[in-house]
Write a structure and sequence with these properties.
Layout lengths: L6 E6 L3 H11 L6 E7 L28 H16 L6 E10 L15 E5 L11 E10 L1 H14 L3 E4 L5 H5 L7 E4 L16 E12 L6 E4 L9 E7 L6 E7 L1 E2 L8 H14 L9 E13 L4 E8 L18 E8 L5 H17 L2
Parallel strand pairs: 1-2, 1-7, 2-6, 3-9, 7-15
Antiparallel strand pairs: 3-5, 4-5, 8-11, 8-12, 8-13, 9-10, 10-11, 14-15
The structure holds flavin-adenine dinucleotide.
Length: 359
């Protein structure tokens, strides 16, 4: 076979979406790729509130109405994470999810995907909720998982460049003459010149990480059951370090405030302890109070190809390199996954790679 040079792909963004795209792309058997991840925040910047990925639960537990495309991504992701349980980075997580209705619970779309699914008997449902289901799902710990992804990618020859780019034009300069861009900038897509997507908005999430070795079960109460709007109650035990549990939380749309609100924190502790009294044990220790912004998008996540004419881009402060001036670049957008970036990550990454490989 004739020599085929590696195709250049620049992935903008090093959150769970950009990293998983890099992982799936570097596993491709169809072509060899020269992959660069260009990002302002890196996977080991675990204290940066400028990106969402360090702050997630992160478990797999579908929310919202039926949407076929999204569910395909969630199915792929569930199966991938389930297969990773033996690595110790993913944990099988017994779960109880409560609803303010009993309608359709026996027919939830994921009932045959998760393990041990059953509808709860009304006598098992605590006051404040109408119905509930139990099943076994998975959780990952971003503090372990993100650095692992980065290390894997480096071992595969993926390069990481720390840079905040202002425009697609500037990003394309990293990609060589026929390179492809992946836009996994999440909330950054609002102000990235050439994208400027005003449908992107934050959903503020405040949570508490505790060390509570006895807590082994995911429990979730729906929005609207707390007395303050935008508050929900959920408890997510994590794999390694064992005993770490995330207590949540808030879902405050269009709220960009990443500062801590201690009244909110007290409310979270009270609601979670009422739901799971063993949290009141003397052994429970607060490890951190966290605030993160979920990168949501009105109309749902954007995952599609756009051919962008860079010559039309208005980025006067930059001096675009000759590589990017006056050419059309293939951009695969992958952003706006809101509260579910982890649980969509492997499915979304497979779709992005299909779009990269499609001529
Ligand atoms: P991000 O992690 O925000 O990464 C964006 C990347 O783009 C960063 O590297 C950033 O620096 C870079 N970037 C942006 N603009 C530019 C620019 N101009 N130039 C260069 N780089 C740029 N999800 C789940 O699936 N399950 C959960 O249980 C869960 N729980 C959550 C709980 C909380 C409290 C929060 C806050 C989120 C939760 N999420 C959960 C959501 C999840 O965290 C996000 O959906 C996911 O992290 C989004 O990943 P991303 O890669 O799209 O974006």
């Amino acid at each position: 076979t004739p020599f085929q040079p590696a195709k250049e792909v620049v992935i903008l963004g090093a959150g769970v979406i950009g990293l998983t795209v890099a992982y799936v792309l570097s596993s491709s058997t169809r072509s060899k790729y020269n992959i660069k991840v260009v990002a302002r925040d890196m996977p080991d910047d675990l204290d940066s509130q400028a990106f969402a990925s360090p702050w997630a639960g992160a478990n797999w537990s579908p929310i919202g109405g039926f949407e076929e495309k999204k569910h395909k991504r969630e199915i792929v992701t569930f199966n991938k994470f389930w297969s990773m349980i033996p690595t110790g980075m993913v944990m099988a997580l017994p779960s109880c999810v409560y609803y303010q209705t009993t309608d359709n619970l026996p027919d939830l779309w994921y009932k045959d995907l998760v393990r041990d699914f059953r509808v709860m008997d009304p006598s098992e449902v605590p006051s404040g909720a109408q119905g509930g289901v139990c099943f076994t799902t998975i959780s990952v710990n971003p503090e372990v998982y993100l650095p692992w992804l980065k290390a894997e990618l480096r071992a595969r020859g993926v390069s990481f460049i720390r840079k905040r780019v202002q425009s697609l034009n500037e990003a394309a300069a990293f990609a060589g003459a026929n390179g492809i861009l992946v836009n996994a900038t999440a909330l950054g897509a609002r102000s990235l010149i050439g994208v400027e997507d005003t449908n992107v908005f934050p959903i503020r999430g405040q949570v508490i990480i505790v060390d509570a070795p006895g807590v082994k079960e995911f429990v979730s109460f729906p929005l609207g059951t707390a007395s303050v709007e935008g508050e929900a109650t959920y408890i997510i035990p994590r794999p390694a370090p064992l005993g770490h549990v995330l207590l949540g939380g808030t879902f405050q749309e269009d709220n960009w405030d990443v500062s801590l609100d201690m009244a909110t924190a007290r409310g979270i502790l009270e609601r979670c302890t009422a739901l799971m009294p063993q949290l009141a044990s003397k052994e429970t220790r607060i490890l951190s109070h966290n605030v993160g912004l979920r990168p949501a998008r009105r109309g749902g996540a954007r995952l599609e190809v756009e051919w962008v004419d860079l010559s039309e881009q208005y980025s006067p402060a930059l001096s675009p390199t000759s590589a990017s001036i006056g050419r059309r670049v293939k951009v695969v957008h992958a952003y706006g996954f809101g509260p579910a970036g982890y649980q969509n990550s492997w499915g979304a990454a497979e779709e992005v790679v299909e779009l990269i490989e499609k001529d």
